[in-house]
Each structure stands twice: as structure tokens, then as C-alpha cells.
Design a protein that fits this description.
The structure is a homodimer. By secondary structure, chain A is of the alpha/beta class. Chain A folds into two domains: 108 residues, Lyase, Ornithine Decarboxylase, Chain A, domain 1 (Beta Barrel), CATH 2.40.37.20; 209 residues, Alpha-Beta Barrel (TIM Barrel). Helix content of chain A is 29%, strand content 23%. Chain A contains ten helices and 17 strands. In chain A, strands 1, 10, 11, 12, 13, 14, 15, 16 and 17 form a nine-stranded mixed beta sheet that branches. The longest helix of chain A has 24 residues. Chain A starts with 19 loop residues before the first strand and ends in an 8-residue tail after the last strand. In chain A, 59% of the residues are buried. Chains A and B meet through helix 5 and strand 10 of A and helix 5 and strand 10 of B.
Chain lengths: 372, 372
Amino acid sequence: MSFRPAATVGMSLAEVDTPCLLLDLDAFERNLQRLPDSLKGLPIKLRPHAKSHKCPEIARRQLAAGAVGVCCQKVSEAEAMVDGGIGDVLIANEVVGAAKLKRLCELARRASIKVCVDDAGNVRDLDAAAHAAGVTLDLLIEVDVGAHRCGVAPGAPAVVLAKQITASANLRFAGLQAYQGTAQHVRKVAERRDAIAQAVADVRHTQQLLKDAGIDCDYVTGAGTGSYLFEATSSVYRELQAGSYIFMDADYARNEWTESGIPAFEHSLFVWTTVMSATMEGRAVVDAGLKASSVDSGMPRVADYADVEFVKASDEHGVLQYRSSTRFKVGDKLKLIPGHCDPTVNLYDWFVCVRNGRVEALWPITARGALL
Amino acid sequence: MSFRPAATVGMSLAEVDTPCLLLDLDAFERNLQRLPDSLKGLPIKLRPHAKSHKCPEIARRQLAAGAVGVCCQKVSEAEAMVDGGIGDVLIANEVVGAAKLKRLCELARRASIKVCVDDAGNVRDLDAAAHAAGVTLDLLIEVDVGAHRCGVAPGAPAVVLAKQITASANLRFAGLQAYQGTAQHVRKVAERRDAIAQAVADVRHTQQLLKDAGIDCDYVTGAGTGSYLFEATSSVYRELQAGSYIFMDADYARNEWTESGIPAFEHSLFVWTTVMSATMEGRAVVDAGLKASSVDSGMPRVADYADVEFVKASDEHGVLQYRSSTRFKVGDKLKLIPGHCDPTVNLYDWFVCVRNGRVEALWPITARGALL
């Protein structure tokens, strides 16, 4: 059930089979360093989200660049990270259901694990599962700071849940999860900044009510690539969860960045594709479609050819349209910039890591398909 | 790199972990039989497209129900089918590049393989690869019968290519690939019927020119679930490539079907999901997002609850909105009908096969991720 990678180490890029996922190591390594560099002197730590890469090889490099651990969204994703040598994982998400709680407790025996909650029944289930497993679990309360997805409302509801956690024999209240997800892809810098200012106000209000109730709450975590410097300078957040900065996809690139203070991350992730048909005037067809690049946030962009547009994807085909004189022939290979990096990475088993036109390494995406 | 399935055989559906891909065996088996039943008495054979299921267990059942073989889109997908015991595979797609041609020739040694072409250079490459491998390859010329994706224009260009093939020492001209892909999801029956009538006219014209050039061309293949009965009754097509009929996704269900003569296929494929958060008025959040159900053809539908709408997907979250009195609580499990079955199946390693509320089997999706 595992496929041969599209390349072998040492191969020239031209020989690499398609479609596959290319990682430009020079650009990746610059991105890897740029984010921690931008945080120098600030009282904030980095815990990058591993849902973007699902690859312990990358997680280890993030730790080497100063990260304190990683975030995951799923227990099975966290298992893959721990199996890959990562000892500190925040599951930045709610975990529900007996099977998953059992796996979560098993994982908490062999790594530092934190998990989010927003529901009293789920807190009871976590306490019971921790009791059965003989472990104590660290819980973050997720607060809805504007994304309107998961999380209790800021303020009093968080205090109710914190009291329940502190009264539970097998649970520890570890702080607040306050991720403003919808702000990340808002195009204008000022609007992203305002959204995070509101999130910060929501967190402060909640912290004050917790303090009034005698509950200490210093640890606050959140932020994504689109906004992280605003959280970092808030003096409220303790850790950042940015993930996409290492890859920089086409949708994030449509954000405005100047005057955000956030450094210019480079595209490092590409889908390598071959022209498989060129029978129509003005168009060519490549071998990368819906199963090679997720189109949830728009079509991929064609790298290096500003005058060629990727206009349509079907299961295994992508249609390119020429805007000027560029013409491809069957067999030509080119790079696509995925619309959305996370679900695109999840389609592949390997990163084909390239430097100076050669394959330098193959990194397995061991949490690919880790849905549970 | 392979994950534990979400279930074990014998488990009750309520115990099955989420998100996972459920196959309702009763509905699946009815669909499996309904399509061949609808062809009785017609001079047509069925070669279902395996890109929909990527699972030899399903391919074997299609053969048992009368299919003559399967279609694939990729060499690696065809390898997975041959490895799974399927001896006759049509790669209903162009195959480009030295690495793939080598694998194609290797595969042609151990199974009956046909492949499509629409480019003279590719035909030369195929002839050279076949020569190097000491095999003879069967080639179909893909004709663009209206989908405007791959394929040469009907008529003279196909004759030019057919002459090149018949003049190549290591190639056989095996017929025409004439798939009208864009017609499949046209909603109105009359418009689908008209599109296929045009495709049939294009094929007849091409066959006549081939005959005039002394080239026999009896074998014509194409059709999808949306139109197959029109091709089947055309007296031009010899084989049908329908694939989605076994699953019937939400997008296909939006087609009009009455008066098409095509039987009513049932939804048999579902994403099983858990409510993971329910803090907001009028909404709930489930644990199935973009990595659990492809949204390229629209959001999934909520099965069994006509008054609940799946309104938004992020990587690992789906937001449900209530339209009337239904309310879910954290831990409730429900079924989603994927918007598009093919790229959704490609996200999973297992079909969890269910009958009468019990897990009857786990079928591995061995061609999941077979992109090369």
C-alpha cells in the first residue's frame, strides 16, 4: 500500500517523475530561519503546526531552529510525530470519542501532550479516560476569539470549564487555546491586526475572570502565518502555532504583507508536473489534477510562467491556458504552486527535496492520512 | 506510514472511529448489479473505471458482475490493480515520460494493457520503449469528442496518428478512446443526450476516414455514469467506462435522471464523522474537513438530516448549520455524502464495509495516492 517515490537521491530534477511534491531546500531553510529570526527579543516561543507538513524530518528541523515542540490536529498525527522523535506535542484541537481518548492517554505516557476542550461532557470523558489509564492530562480551554468554529465564548464560559477541570482528579488546567483562524487569510494588514487586537482583548478579559476565580492562567497559545507577529507582540500569547510559513502557498501569497512586519516567506513547496497533452490552440494539459493539488482555496499557480494560467482541474488532469507567447510541448515539466499547502501535502507520501537542480533527500510524510 | 483502520470486523457502526470512509454493502451491491442489468441485450461491454475506488476488492466484484476488465488513469494505479489480480487494464489516459513508459512496458508483460495517445512524439517514445522492453503495445487514439481536454480533433488528425501507429514496429492500433467527460455532470438529460449524440457523430466520422485509409477500427470506448446508456445504445461504442455508479456522490445526484433510462443508483459511500464541538447557537462542528472529503464539487451533504447543512470545511473541521429543530451534541456520529467520490476515496487507506449496522469487512484502497 506504499508507492515508490517519484525520485531517487542524486537524480537531476529533470529526471524526477510526476506528479510529485518538490521541496526547494534553499527556500525552505530560509523560511525555517526567518520566522524565529523575526521573534528575536520578544517574550514568545514557537510551536509550529505540523498539520502543514505531517513530516517528522521537518519537525526536527523546526526544533533545531528553536521551536519548543509542535502542534497537531489529530491523535494519530501526534502519534506519528512522537514515533518520529518529537517529545512535546500540543493537540490544538478537541479530541472526542472513547477510542481516541484511549490512544491519547497511551501517548501521554511517552511524550508531553496537551489537548484542547470546549465541552463539559468531553472534560468528564477525558477525566475518566485518564483515570482508567493512570495518567494526568493537561487541558487547554479553547476560547472562540472570532473564528466561530470551536471554542467556548470568552469570559464566563471559560471560567465554568476551568473550574470543572481543576476539580477533576486526573486533569490539569494548562491555559487557553486562542486561535483566530479566519483572520489568517484576510487580505488587508489592518484588518488582520484589528482581528488579533480583538482576540487579545477577549483573552485578557478571560484571564481576568479566571484570576478573579483564583485560577492562574499564564499560558496562551494561538496564531498562524498570516498574523503571528501581532500575537507575538501582544504580551498575552506565550506560544505561536504558525505552520504554513515554511511552504508559503498561493492563497497565503495573496495576502498583503508590507507593513505587517512579517518577513517575506518564499514559495518552497511545488507540485512537479508534466505536460501530457497539447492538442488544442492556446492550451496544454498537465498530469496534476485534483488528486495532486487541493483546489479548496483556488487553483494552483504556474511557477516561473506569469503568462500561463492553471484554469481547470479534473481528477488527474490540469488545464493550462496561455496568455501570451509561451507554448509547451508534450513532455515538458513545470512547477505548480499549490493553492493550499496543508491538504495538498496530505495527498503525498514523500517530499522530494531538491537543491541546485538535484534530489538531495526524500522525506516521508508519515502522518499523511492521519485522520483519527 | 500506514495507519490503523478506524474499525475492526464485527464492530458495531456506533463504535467505528471517525472520520472514516463507510461503504454500505447492501447499497453498493445493488448499484454493482444495476448497471450491468441495464445493459442486458445491448451489444456493449462494461469496463468500469477503477480511479473511483482504487481497490482491487471492488474491481474483482465488478468482474464477477460481468465486467471485462477495468480502466485506470495512471500506470501506478494499473500496477496496483494487476498486483490485486486484475488481468486486463485499459489506461484511459496518456502516459508520458521515460520512467512511466518503462513501467508500462513491464506491466504489459504480465497483463493485458492498453493505453491512449494523442501526440506523435509520444507515439515515437512508446515505440522505442516497447522495442527496448521487447513487447508490443496496444494503443488507443484519444479523440476529443467535446470535453476539450486531451485528444486529437475527430477526423483527419486521428488518421494521421493511426497511420503512424500501424507503421511502428512495436505498436498495435487498437481503436478509439472517445470519452465525453464534460457531459457527465450536465444536469439536464436532453443536454447530456445531445452531447453524446455529437460524440457519436464525431466517432462515426473518424471511423469512416480510418476505413477510407484502410485502417480497421471497431473498438471504441468511453462513457461515464451520467451518460452511459446513450453510448450503450449508439451501436458505435464497444465498451463503457462508468465508475461512479457504485458510489453515487452528491454532485452526480444533482443531475436529472428521470427519462434518461439510467437506473437510480443509491448513495453507498459515506464519510462517518463525529460532532466534536457544539458551543454555538444553530451550529455544530464535525471532525471531517478538507482532508476527509474533497470539496472540489461542493460541500458534502449530511445524510439522514435534510434540515442540516454542511456549510464550511477547513482542514480538519466541518461546520454544520441547523435549518430547523435538529440539534447535535458532542460525540454524536453522522454520515456525510461526499461531494465528489473519486478524490474523496483517494484520501483514505480503507473502506470500512458495513451491513446491518456491523462492520463486515475492511477493504484496502491499495491504489490510494497512485499518482505516477
